[in-house]
Write a structure and sequence with these properties.
Keywords: Oxidoreductase. The protein is of the alpha+beta class. It contains 5 helices and 4 strands. The protein has a 4-stranded antiparallel beta sheet, with helices on both faces. The structure holds flavin mononucleotide.
């Protein structure tokens, strides 16, 4: 597990290679196995492989989402706020589990924040994504996870750079 965490980096450049169905299935099994508060499982997911839709989703934000247009796969993470008051935590856990599962099968990924972000001054990123994918109002959009075979190399994390000073034992200071 520690090795997986040290090697995982945000990957924003992808090969054009499509992601095999078995790998997409594995990612979705991992997502659906995510723990959630009171096991309510308020999340839902949209698997997007259509190039035109991915191109549209890449415009969700003015900054930080454009790289998505080269990705062969996007998984949109939704949460039903009418089912759980902690849907954000549940959706975030599912997101990182998808990212770690992707890393474990040789795929690169990057989180694209959608909630609390803007498409432009009039339209939120959530509203934009909702319109692109026909998502109903009760479902909030937490993030999009861009996924593909890595086409960039990044250095692994080194245990020497860990911020151990952020950890306290028994009492804060
Ligand atoms: C909650 C969250 C939101 C993020 N939003 C974006 C984003 O919108 N666009 C982007 O390119 N990267 C985004 N990232 C990726 C971070 O920039 C990245 O995880 C961080 O710089 C650490 O780099 P690493 O993932 O390679 O360890 C996000 C990561 C998290 C956890």
């Amino acid at each position: 597990m520690l090795e997986l965490l040290k090697t995982r980096r945000s990957i924003r450049k992808y090969k054009a290679t499509k992601i095999e169905k078995e790998k997409v299935d594995l990612l979705m099994k991992a997502a659906l196995l995510s723990p959630s508060s009171r096991s309510i499982r308020p999340w839902e997911f949209v698997i997007v492989t259509d190039e035109e839709l991915i191109g549209n989703l890449a415009k969700s934000k003015e900054h930080g989402s454009l790289f998505l247009k080269e990705a062969p796969l996007a998984i949109v993470i939704l949460g039903d706020e009418t089912k759980s008051d902690v849907w954000i935590e549940d959706a975030s856990i599912a997101s990182i589990i998808i990212q770690l599962a992707a890393e474990s099968i040789g795929l690169g990924s990057c989180w694209i924040q959608i909630r609390e972000r803007r498409h432009n001054k009039d339209v939120t990123s959530e509203e934009f994504v909702r319109r692109v994918l026909n998502i109903p109002k009760n479902l909030r959009v937490e993030a999009i996870i861009a996924i593909g075979y890595p086409d960039e190399k990044k250095s692994f994390y080194d245990e020497k750079s860990l911020l151990h000073e952020k950890v306290y034992v028994n009492q804060y200071k």
